[in-house]
Amino acid sequence: MEIRRAADRAVTTTPWLTSRHSFSFGDHYDPDNTHHGLLVVNNDDVVGPHSGFGTHPHRDMEIVTWVLEGELTHQDSAGNHGVIYPGLAQRMSAGSGILHSEKNDSLTQPVHFVQMWVIPDEAGISPGYQQHEIGHIGADLVTIASGISGHGAAISLHHRGAALHGARLQPGDTVIAPAAPYLHFFVPRGRLTLEGAGELSEGDAARLADADGPRLTATEPTELLIWEMHAKLGG
């Protein structure tokens, strides 16, 4: 088990963006911090009003965006368009290559979201897009995205060994994580206690290997994102 504290994340700042990186990203490269399991990006982003990421390319990546507050507008070269808001699961498969933009169209409110990238299990697939409204998320783990057979996920992933789960917990609520060779816990807001590790606060993450379903208990209102992974890069 490895705990990664919020304050230790690299940060990219511009006049309109604050992006905190759990792994190496962009100009922030650390050869000892490039991924965990299949997860290569876990960016905690706040984009200011009437701004955002202009059109840019991606390739061979499953990109999942989870909005915490505000709205984010997606548009891509495959003709897909969507507005992502809290409770809406969204995935873009970059596949053989795609261009897209992500904008905050609000004139007054920032948008806060977590964007996560996992490696697909097949390169060069046709680019794709999927979004689905989940609605209410409470103390039970909800499968947001999954490529694992038998999971009733809101959206699919192009990797048979990866799944993203989420929960919104009130103080005292407890969830038990799935058992998996690789787990990644991220607390985008709130505070909880992770069995065997102690407290995780807002922005903290935990990386586990060969974990047997640890228990997590909220100590204040908390949002929790869990990646369950049954493979790793190169294996």
Automatic annotation (TrEMBL):
Claim: Protease is one of the keywords in the record: no
Keywords per UniProt: Dioxygenase, Iron, Metal-binding, Oxidoreductase
Matching Gene3D superfamilies: Jelly Rolls
Binding residues annotated for Fe cation, in chain numbering: H56, H58, H100, E102
Species this protein is from: Mycobacterium stomatepiae
Cofactor (UniProt): Fe cation
Domain Pirin N-terminal residue range list: 8-118
GO terms for MF: dioxygenase activity; metal ion binding
Record family assignment: Belongs to the pirin family.
Cofactor note: Binds 1 Fe cation per subunit.
Name of this protein: Putative quercetin 2,3-dioxygenase
One Pfam family it belongs to: Pirin
